[in-house]
Amino acid sequence: MAINKLILTAGPSITSKEIDYVTDAVTHGWNEKWNEYIVRFETSFSEFIGVKHSMTTSSCTGALHLGLMACGIGNGDEVIVPEISWVASASSVVYTGAKPVFCDIEEGSWCIDVKAAESMITNRTKAIMPVHLYGHPANMPDIMKLAKKYNLYVIEDAAPSIGAEIAGKRTGSFGHVSGFSFQGAKILVTGEGGMLVSNDTDIFNKAQSLSDHGRDPDSPLSAVSIGYKYKMSNIQAALGLAQLERANELVNRKRGINSRYRDNLKDCPSVRVSEELPGCKSIHWMTSLELLGNSTSRRTEIMGKLKERLVDTRPVFSPMSSLPMFSRISDNPVAYRIGENSINLPSGHNLTDEQIDYVSETIIYLCGQ
Ligand SMILES: Cc1ncc(COP(=O)(O)O)c(C=O)c1O
Question: Residue 89 C-alpha to ligand 1 middle, in angstroms?
Answer without folding.
Answer: 7
